[in-house]
Each structure stands twice: as C-alpha cells, then as structure tokens.
C-alpha cells in the first residue's frame, strides 16, 4: 500500500489501567535525575513529580515480545546494544504483522504505523495512598541490593528506586488505526502482545522480581472513519470491560471481535 493510497477506515481503542503486581522500575537514566543520591531513579512527570509509564516503554516491550514469539530476525540496530526486526523488502513487509502494527523506519513501500501508545500516569488514588503510607521517596521505595564479587566475595551495596507493588497507572490508552481489512486481524497481535507482557515484565530488573504488571478494566471501542461517528463499545458476554484472563486463548473471541470491527467499518 503506497502512502498516497492510505484511507483511514477507523480507529480501535483499548483503554484500562495497569496494576504493578511487584515493584516497578522504569529508569530515567543515570544522569537524568538525582533524588537523594539514588543510583537508579525512575521516570517522573516533571509537572507532578509522580512516576509514570512512558508509552515508549510499554510499546517497545510489546514489540520485543511479539518479535520473539514469532521468531523474527533482529536485523536492525536502533542504538547501542539494541536491535529490532525490520522487514527489508516490500514483499516481506506486506506479510509481516509486527512491522505493520509497530512500524518501520521510512521506506518507499512502507505504510503508516498502526499502533499508538499513550503515557500512563500514576492514578490520583494511588498517589494519595502512597502519600499516606509515607514512602522512602515521593511515591516510591528504595530497594537495596548487594552485588557480590564471585572471586573475592567482596560486597558492593547499591540501591534502586521502584514504584511499590499495588500502584495503579491510568488511564491507559492504545489507539489502533485501521487502513485495510487485514488490520482487523492484526489488531489481535496487540492483544496477544499485552498477554505476553503480563507473562513477562515491564521496565528493568525483571529477573530479580520487579516489573510484573496486569492490565485491568479493559474496554475496546471503535470509531468509524466515514463521518467519524459515535464511538461504539464491544461487549464480551454482555460485559463492557474485561481482563486478558477472560480471553483464555479462545480463537472464537478474536473472530467475534474481528466481525464486530468489520461491521463498524462497514466491511462485513
């Protein structure tokens, strides 16, 4: 599909919140913040000083997990020690759901990126609860670790900043643009990536217990592009909201969702 042939048929939205089931560390970089001498500070909103989940972190992890689940080659460098999958030909791009959903660097034969992920702020209720608890730092805890030299057994203490378990971030919003009939099927890749993320971790230090998250109160809505009419909400078994556990790997649920999207976009 050439750039000039693009027609936006509509948008599907996944909204909800993100629960940190274990402490969450999304780092700000070694020189970005200095909070009480903390070695590994978290990302904070400069307007509120509250931690937040950057859309880039959420989107990047979803892409990485999707690529690994499909066994795609990591053939494109995007920075020091970071590689992703990028299709190198128009033919491979047409068949690659990951590159269509998450995008590729500008190519003559590439189309628009389908998935847009918003930042997710710490909710007011979670911020109030953390203020009442009196955390080590504003809204966060200091997790102390000790690195042990395998030869000398010398110990090097270090500390890491984390958002405590139980904190909730939201509203979370994922916006998915639909340009082709095939995009209704590609929408399933987004939901699968969210499932993979729940089974893995978000942010850093996942192998040491941090970063387990769960999506809550999810809704799927759709707005058609013809006249940009009212937003319709998809109902699953008569419920407006759901969790990823509700899907249980049932292909009929995705088939039903694709059919609903097709009817909303007048493609049925």
What's this, in brief?
It contains 6 helices and 11 strands. With 268 residues, it is an alpha+beta fold.
Write the layout of secondary structure elements.
Layout: E1 10-20, E2 52-53, H1 55-70, E3 76-79, E4 82-84, H2 90-95, H3 97-102, E5 115-117, E6 120-121, H4 124-133, E7 141-148, E8 155-162, E9 168-178, H5 182-199, E10 213-224, E11 232-233, H6 251-264
Antiparallel strand pairs: 1-9, 1-10, 2-6, 3-4, 5-9, 7-8, 10-11
Q: Can you characterise this structure?
A:
There is one protein chain. The chain is α+β, with helices and mostly antiparallel strands. It has one domain (3-264). It contains 6 helices and 11 strands. The strands form 4 sheets. It has a 5-stranded antiparallel β-sheet. A two-stranded antiparallel ribbon has the order 2-6. A hairpin with a 2-residue loop joins β3 and β4 (82-84). The mean pLDDT is 87.
Derived from helix and strand composition plus strand pairing, the structural class reads alpha+beta
Rg? 21 Å
Number of helices: 6
Number of domains: 1
* Low-pLDDT ranges: none
Helical content class: 25-40%
Distance between the termini: 21 Å
The backbone outline, from C-alpha atoms, is: globular
Describe the biggest sheet? 5 strands, antiparallel
Number of DSSP-assigned strands: 11
The H-and-E topology, N to C, reads as EEHEEHHEEHEEEHEEH
Mean pLDDT: 87
């Amino acid at each position: 599909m050439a750039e000039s042939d693009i027609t936006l048929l509509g948008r599907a939205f996944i909204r909800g919140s993100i629960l940190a089931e274990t402490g969450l560390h999304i780092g700000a970089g070694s020189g970005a913040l200095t909070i009480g001498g903390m070695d590994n500070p978290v990302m904070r909103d400069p307007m509120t000083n509250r931690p937040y989940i950057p859309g880039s972190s959420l989107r990047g992890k979803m892409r990485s997990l999707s690529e690994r689940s499909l066994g795609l080659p990591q053939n494109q460098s995007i920075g020091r020690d970071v590689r992703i999958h990028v299709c190198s030909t128009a033919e491979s791009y047409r068949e690659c759901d990951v590159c269509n959903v998450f995008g590729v660097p500008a190519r003559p034969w590439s189309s628009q990126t389908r998935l847009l992920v918003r930042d997710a702020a710490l909710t007011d209720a979670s911020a109030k609860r953390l203020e009442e608890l009196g955390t080590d730092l504003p809204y966060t805890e200091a997790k102390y670790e000790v690195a042990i030299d395998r030869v000398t057994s010398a110990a090097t203490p270090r500390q890491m900043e984390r958002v405590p378990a139980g904190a909730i971030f939201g509203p979370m919003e994922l916006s998915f643009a639909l340009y082709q009939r095939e995009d209704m099927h590609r929408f399933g890749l987004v939901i699968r990536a969210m499932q993979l993320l729940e089974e893995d971790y978000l942010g850093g230090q996942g192998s040491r217990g941090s970063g387990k998250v769960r999506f809550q109160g999810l809704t799927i809505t759709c707005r058609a592009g013809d006249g940009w009419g009212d937003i319709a909400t998809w109902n699953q078994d008569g419920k407006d909201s759901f969790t990823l556990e509700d899907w249980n790997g049932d292909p009929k649920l995705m088939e039903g969702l694709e059919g609903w999207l097709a009817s909303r976009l007048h493609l049925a």
